[in-house]
Amino acid sequence: MIKELFIDANRCIGCRACAEGCSECSGHGGQAMIHIDFLERSASVQSAPTVCMHCDEPACAAVCPADAIKVDANGVVLTAMTERCIGCANCALACPFGVPIVKAGIELMMKCDLCYDRTAVGLKPMCATVCPSGALFYGTREEVEDRRRARPLNDFAFGEQHVHTRNHLMVPAETEVMHVGSSGPTTRSRAEQHLEEALC
């Protein structure tokens, strides 16, 4: 059975255990490859873990001029190869999920590689191992569907572009595709409305 990572933002408590655990993985040099986002911080305490979604057709790898980002046979998008990465940040700009980070000083892109050294030998990624609330769950689709009311989703729409991912986001059961960003008409500011009226 294929094991995958499932992200359930509704369960995230912002404790940062995932980031701390990630930073302790060998090969990370004390750097966390995962970060916690605080959503509408002025009005809510809701947080969400941000990890690489491991896209089927990763934009980060497609725009890398040094061919430093590779995808393994299991669909895991690996972090940039140290000897090839030139720190140009194309990957950070191209990623629709905002995952890659170019570390200043070492000019190297670093991101979640699904704890390749652990998952390759049957262990859970460090983030899922230490998450106390189950916001990060590593297992089979059948296991997660049996335990959660939400359903796993790995199809995202960014405008007209669809992105299919290896990792899953837990969403309400009726959601078929996650539309990211505004799908309706853009709301214009009052100044833009006045300018438009003046030009008519």
Keywords:
200 residues; alpha/beta; Alpha-Beta Plaits; 5-stranded mixed sheet; two-stranded antiparallel ribbon
How would you describe this protein?
With 200 residues, the protein is of the alpha/beta class. It has a domain of 58 residues: Alpha-Beta Plaits (2-Layer Sandwich), CATH 3.30.70.20. 21% of the residues lie in helices and 22% in strands. It is built from seven helices and nine strands. The strands form three sheets. It has a five-stranded mixed sheet. A hairpin with a 2-residue loop joins strand 7 and strand 8. The longest helix has 10 residues. The chain is globular, with a radius of gyration of 19 Å. About 2% of the residues have low confidence.
Could you tell me the mean pLDDT? 84
Q: In the CATH hierarchy, what is the class of one domain?
A: Alpha Beta
Report the oligomer: single chain
**Treating each run of at least 4 consecutive H or I residues as one helix, how many helices?**
7
The appropriate CATH architecture of one domain is 2-Layer Sandwich
Q: Can you list the strand order of the major beta sheet? A: 6-1-8-7-9
> What structural class do you assign from the helix and strand content?
alpha/beta
Cα radius of gyration in angstroms: 19 Å
Beta content comes to 15-25%
- Low-pLDDT runs of 5+ residues are 183-187
CATH topology group of one domain: Alpha-Beta Plaits
End-to-end gap: 62 Å
- Fraction in helix: 10-25%
* Overall morphology: globular
Major sheet characteristics:
5 strands, mixed
Count of β-strands: 9
Helix-strand string: EHEEHHEEHHEHEEEH
